[in-house]
Each structure stands twice: as structure tokens, then as C-alpha cells.
């Protein structure tokens, strides 16, 4: 089936997307919601060579119906689809655990249906976690997120125009999750107070922070973050960025490292202290002028004196 004729005005939406050239193989993560369903429809309209993977977390009674919807839709569009089922239990950090499991299944190259609304929510969440420039850049506008210039209202309109009734995930309105409260309570309140569309403003700001983050990354590219004296001699804003990227990679932190933690890390590099706690039970230690990250409880060499 040709998707180009499935809904009117697809050219208007495609102009704001960043899909690769016609014929490029792309793998899409499709949950069955409006965003990812629109991603599928637009990828086909862009004439990419599409395959789909659906991740069933098994957290809701209706999750099997979501999988069936995606399979049926892909079959109607003559698109290859696979379903991966996970076994997650309810409990603390459920949203983050589900996200990490989904990322592991999708891999680094799968396209996802994040929109400008997701970008704004992520920026606010990272801001209130105390993140620096890289965290405030939120979602990187890379090849994996071709819909970042679209809004959720756009993805719903795309599905409606195509005559597709997307699935609704009840977890997306569960107030247990901070992102849901940011979406349904905080952003509407900001709109009301400032009398403007907060998502548009926040998305523009995220793009500016992304430029700053890219500059800092380039400036710190050849810096060895384990050399305490080298890090200490850098301008503080660059030193924090070098440490933040290194700490996040080494600890596997789900979120950007907060500014308070980075201040403590910089103090260790500058010989103001010999060690500090890091996210996830890790510890930053300076010994012999070398910075290292250790798992809590692991034996370490004698640290340097302050």
C-alpha cells in the first residue's frame, strides 16, 4: 500500500522531519501510540525501506492488544515487524527501568517518535534535576529522532488523516510518573502564566544548549578526564563538562550528572578533597594525581591527601 496517498498533506509534515534519503533502510520503534504510528506512516511516505520492532513490557493487561495492533498495521502496510516481550514488574523507578529495557532492545540506531513536546518535557525534567548544558540540550536532534520539529497534535492529526486509530497507553496519564505531571500540570501552568506556548520556547532553548554542548564537547575532546591537574587547569565550565561526560559513561547514569555533584567532582580534581560520591553508588577518587571511578565498597588505593 502506498502511504503517500493514505493521508492528505503529508508533504507539509515531511518538510519538518529529518528522514534519510529514499530507499534508506530504517528500523522503527513503534509502540502503537500516535507518535510512533505517525513515525511509521511518515517514514513510508518518505519512501524509506522500513522495518518495525514493537516492545511489549507486559505491564498492562492491554499490552498484548498493542502488539496485535502494531502487527496488523504493519501487515496492512506490507512492513516487516517483530515483537519483543519483556518481563518487568511494577515498583520503584518503573518508568526509567522500562525506558532502559526498551533502549536495550531497540539498540542505538532505531528511529523513535519523539516530538517537540517530549523535548520540552525532558528539558524541564533535566533542569529540575540540576543538569548542566548537555542535560538542558535534552534530546539530541540526530538521525534517530526525525519528528523533533513536530508536535503531538501533529502526530494525532497524521493518524486521523490516515484513518488510523492509534492506541492509548494508560501509563501516559499515570500521575505516579514525573513526566506525566510535567506534561499535564506544569507545562499548561507555564502556558497560562506566561501566556505563550512553553513547548516552542523550551524547544528553541534546547537547540541553543545543544550548540553550546557541542562546542564544549569539541573543546574537551582531547582532554584526559583522569588527569586531575589537567582537569583542574581548565576553565570551570569546560572542566565540569569533561567530568560530566566521563562520569555518565563510566557509571551508566540514566540522567545527566547534576551540577552539585560536578562541583564536588571538580573539587576532587582541584585537590580540595580526595573523594566524592557519584550517582548509582559510585565514588570518584583521586590517587597519585589520577582520577578514577570505583563502585561503592570496592577496594581502592590510598587517596591523595587534600
Molecular structure report:
It is a single chain. Helix content is 47%, strand content 11%. It has 306 residues and is mainly α. Among the domains are: 3-115 and 150-173, Rossmann fold, CATH 3.40.50; 222-295, Uridine Diphospho-n-acetylenolpyruvylglucosamine Reductase, domain 3. Helix 3 (63-76) links the parallel strand 2 (49-56) and strand 3. Helix 9 crosses helix 11 (236-251). The longest helix is centred in the C-terminal third of the chain and has 22 residues, at 198-219. It starts with 9 loop residues before the first helix and ends in an 11-residue tail after the last strand.
Strand order of the largest sheet: 1-2-3
Helix count from the secondary structure assignment: 12
Beta-strand residue percentage: 5-15%
Q: How do the helices and strands follow one another from N- to C-terminus?
A: HEHEHEHHHHHHHHHEEE
The CATH C-level name of the domain at 3-115 and 150-173 is Alpha Beta
Instruction: Give the oligomer, counting copies of the same chain as homo and different chains as hetero.
Output: single chain
CATH superfamily of the domain at 3-115 and 150-173: HUPs
The tally of beta strands, per DSSP, is 6
Average the pLDDT over all residues and give the rounded result. 89
User: Helical percent range?
Assistant: 40-55%
Distance between the termini: 69 Å
CATH topology of the domain at 3-115 and 150-173: Rossmann fold
* CATH arch. level architecture of the domain at 3-115 and 150-173: 3-Layer(aba) Sandwich
Question: How would you describe the shape?
Answer: elongated
What summary fits the major beta sheet?
3 strands, parallel
Which structural class do the helices and strands define? mainly alpha
Low-confidence stretches: none
Radius of gyration using CA atoms only: 22 Å
Amino acid at each position: 500500500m502506498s502511504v503517500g496517498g493514505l493521508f492528505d498533506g503529508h508533504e507539509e509534515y515531511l518538510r519538518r522531519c529529518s528522514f534519510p534519503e529514499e530507499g534508506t533502510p530504517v528500523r522503527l520503534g513503534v509502540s502503537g501510540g500516535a507518535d510512533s504510528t505517525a513515525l511509521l506512516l511518515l517514514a513510508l511516505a518518505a519512501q524509506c525501506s522500513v522495518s518495525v520492532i514493537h516492545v511489549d513490557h507486559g505491564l498492562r493487561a492491554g499490552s498484548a492488544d498493542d502488539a496485535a495492533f502494531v502487527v496488523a498495521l504493519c501487515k496492512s502496510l506490507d512492513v516487516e515487524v517483530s515483537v519483543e516481550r519483556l518481563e518487568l514488574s511494577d515498583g520503584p523507578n518503573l518508568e526509567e527501568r522500562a525506558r532502559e529495557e526498551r533502549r536495550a532492545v531497540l539498540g542505538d540506531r532505531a528511529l523513535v517518535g519523539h516530538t517537540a513536546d517530549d523535548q520540552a518535557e525532558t528539558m524541564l525534567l533535566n533542569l529540575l534535576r540540576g543538569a548542566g548544558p548537555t542535560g538542558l540540550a535534552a534530546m539530541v536532534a540526530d538521525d534517530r529522532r526525525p519528528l523533533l520539529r513536530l508536535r503531538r497534535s501533529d502526530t494525532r492529526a497524521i493518524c486521523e488523516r490516515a484513518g488510523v486509530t492509534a492506541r492509548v497507553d494508560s501509563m501516559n496519564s499515570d500521575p505516579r510518573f514525573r513526566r506525566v505531571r510535567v506534561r499535564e500540570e506544569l507545562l499548561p501552568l507555564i502556558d497560562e502564566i506566561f501566556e505563550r506556548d512553553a513547548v516552542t520556547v523550551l524547544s528553541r532553548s534546547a537547540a541553543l544548549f545543544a550548540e553550546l554542548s557541542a562546542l564544549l564537547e569539541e573543546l574537551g575532546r582531547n582532554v584526559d578526564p583522569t588527569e586531575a591537574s589537567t582537569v583542574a587547569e581548565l576553565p570551570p565550565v569546560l572542566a565540569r563538562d569533561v567530568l560530566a561526560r566521563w562520569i555518565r559513561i563510566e557509571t551508566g547514569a540514566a540522567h545527566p550528572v547534576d551540577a552539585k555533584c560536578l562541583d564536588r567532582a571538580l573539587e576532587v580534581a582541584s585537590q580540595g578533597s580526595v573523594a566524592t560520591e557519584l550517582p548509582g553508588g559510585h565514588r570518584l577518587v583521586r590517587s597519585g594525581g589520577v582520577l578514577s571511578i570505583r563502585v561503592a565498597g570496592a577496594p581502592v588505593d590510598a587517596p591523595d591527601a587534600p
